[in-house]
Amino acid sequence: MSTIQTGAGGRGLASWADSGRLSAERPGEAGFSNPLGRESRLQTERELGGRGEGVFKCPEDQLPLDYAKIYPDPDLEAQVLSLTIRCIHSEEGCRWSGTIRHLQAHLGTCSYNVVPCPNRCGTKSSRRDLPAHLQHDCPQRHLKCEFCGTDFTGEAFENHQGLCPQESVYCENKCGARMMRRLLSQHMLVECPKRTQPCSYCAKDFLYDTIQNHEYQCPRYPVPCPNQCGVSSIAREDLGGHLKENCTTALALCPFKEAGCKHRCPKLAMSRHLDESTKLHLGLMGALVTRQRQELAELRREVEELAVGSDGVLIWKIADYSRKLQEAKQRANYESFSPPFYTHRYGYKLQVSAFLNGNGSGEGSFLSVYIRVLPGQYDNLLEWPFSYRVTFSLLDQSDPSLSKPQHITETFLPDPNWKNFQKPGQGRASLDESLLGFGYPKFISHEDIKKRNYVKDNAVFIKALVEIPQKIMP
Ligand SMILES: [Zn+2]
Ligand SMILES: [Zn+2]
Ligand SMILES: [Zn+2]
Ligand SMILES: [Zn+2]
Ligand SMILES: [Zn+2]
Ligand SMILES: [Zn+2]
Ligand SMILES: [Zn+2]
């Protein structure tokens, strides 16, 4: 018999028993010392078919054996126990080999042998994995918190880790402060310079260390009125409105400032100024009215100027003819004037006049018609004397579809020596002869004007036409 290769536990022994070399010379099991322990021996009995009835079968020929005839064989036992075997953990790496006799002793120290955790946590592990288990995994291992010094079993320690009130930690607000965890919440609530805090004026959130700066800008921060009006606390953003509207010391302008009063005083004192300055204000208002009247007159002139015709043709309607003729008969030299008109755009400013009861040689029985040059806007740009052909017409208002109208027409070239046709000078006196128009004292007799339809609906039309050569038109 050479070395028996054993597996784990009783299986190795079974193969040893299966080898059929059990001696059955002596009955009883006493003295059969199984080096592999009780469990292995029971298994051996089962494999041998034992039921405690003392019936065994021979593994060689399957014949029943009489249990009573089985007896220990000390010599064979000694022989067997001296066989050399490898450790049952050789496959896992144990390199031990020795006699079966010494196997049990080896297993007591074999680093591959499985042993229960000495902390009775229920875990079994190989002897060589045990230190790691005891140190890191065993829920029953004992640990001391390095911060608070408390003893913990493994599980409790894991729960304690990261929570130890004595552990030194950095402030979560990153203010740089370090303290025991148990002091942290208090720190973050009332001490940390990086804690957020609402501004007590505008209620927005700020870091504690910037809130002081914020107060210099906070729109709701209370400030006193700089005019010392008595208002001691007003939100910064409302100060402008206060100074403008409510501050009793704010300066106000006199309501007559448009009229020229330059007075400024605190609002409260204004009514006294108004009481005291009635005369002054009245004077200022009078002057203002005068200035405005002048402005109005100027405007009216400009508007009239704009309304003046500028195409060289005037058609002048004299309405209410019979009444005006009557008036002219009663008042010598009663002259009616047409609206002024321009010969062309930027041209000479002219005006037609009529003596309904005649003047000069036509006085009393003719209609006299004249034209005169008025001072115009563009006189400095024009050639003088005025020398363009003028045509007067008294229009026949007969219905053109019934008979061809027969207008009374006279045309003349201005006399270049006539004073009124010279360039109008500054400050022409009103009775200056340069104001005399040029025209026809006997344009039409009172007899002829009654003919046809020269007077219709108590109105006459006098037309003046100035012929301006095309080349001087703008
Ligand atoms: Zn071993
Ligand atoms: Zn354990
Ligand atoms: Zn602790
Ligand atoms: Zn902090
Ligand atoms: Zn604020
Ligand atoms: Zn004030
Ligand atoms: Zn005033």
UniProtKB/TrEMBL annotation:
InterPro entries: MATH/TRAF_dom (IPR002083), TNF_rcpt-assoc_TRAF_met (IPR012227), TRAF-like (IPR008974), TRAF1-6_MATH_dom (IPR049342), TRAF4_MATH (IPR037307), Znf_RING/FYVE/PHD (IPR013083), Znf_TRAF (IPR001293). Residues 1-55 are annotated as: Disordered. Its main location: cytoplasm. This is TNF receptor-associated factor. Pfam families: TRAF-mep_MATH, zf-TRAF. Residues 105-158, 160-212, 214-270 form the TRAF-type domain. SMART domains: MATH (SM00061). Keywords: Cytoplasm, Metal-binding, Receptor, Repeat, Zinc, Zinc-finger. It comes from the Eukaryota. It is found in: Cytoplasm. A zinc finger (TRAF-type) spans 105-158, 160-212, 214-270. Gene3D superfamilies: Apoptosis, Tumor Necrosis Factor Receptor Associated Protein 2, Chain A (2.60.210.10), Zinc/RING finger domain, C3HC4 (zinc finger) (3.30.40.10). Residues 38-50 have a biased composition (Basic and acidic residues). PROSITE patterns: MATH (PS50144), ZF_TRAF (PS50145). Belongs to the TNF receptor-associated factor family. Residues 311-466 form the MATH domain.
